[in-house]
# Entry
Amino acid sequence: MRPCRRVRRFWPVARAISAKPQKNYYAAPPQIERGLREHMVGVEGRAYLDMVNNVTILGHGHPRLADAVHRQWQRLNTNSRFHYASVAAFSERLAALAPEGLDTVFLVNSGSEANDLALRLAWAATGARNMLCLLEGYHGWSVASDAVSTSIADNPQALTTRPDWVHPVMSPNTYRGPFRGAGSTADYVEAVMPTLEKLDREVKGLAGFICECVYGNAGGIPLPPGYLRDVYALVRGARRGLHRR
Ligand SMILES: Cc1ncc(COP(=O)(O)O)c(C=O)c1O
# Structure
């Protein structure tokens, strides 16, 4: 692709007008104006393999997706409190893909909202407030999803400013953590115990556990095999124990 000769650089404008907490990935970010499939293309003509932009899991410029959005916007643009064919069909397909027992759909706009909703459901279902989360985690920037976010990459004060209902446990980081590699599952599961025991001693209820299934901010690192299965079992057991009292 030929580089464009006369390109207006928007970075100085963006820097002047954007809210300060809205960070860019680079000190002088490339100006990306187009994307195709798994690539992004900067105005200087360089193509980038998009391994950072975690939000667009469908890639860039998918013709079927673009066509579906185009058709729907020509027809109707409203929220999901209205019932219409495409929202019903989409929800039905989504529920059919979900694991056994998950048969209800509540559409939201973003990851932050989805995590807020998950927390509210856990609070409502258990009547408890306390949540276990992982160190190095990121869950969004709404009030509740930020509360369970511990990554200091987004918030340097994260570790000293969590609300008292948030209980971070050791990050099962198989690449940089104290235990490395796929054989570290049992050590990381064991590391959850002191926090559960503390909640037990203090007779505090437990609403749930939240974590990313693949670390984002911590560097695209998968969790050790079986970690979620084992931690879920521990947390469910602890929750039952705590609620029996
Ligand atoms: C792992 C993870 N969870 C939640 C979010 C928040 O999603 P959103 O920006 O759509 O609110 C992000 C956003 O980058 C994320 O990476």
Q: What stands out?
A: The chain has a mean pLDDT of 91.
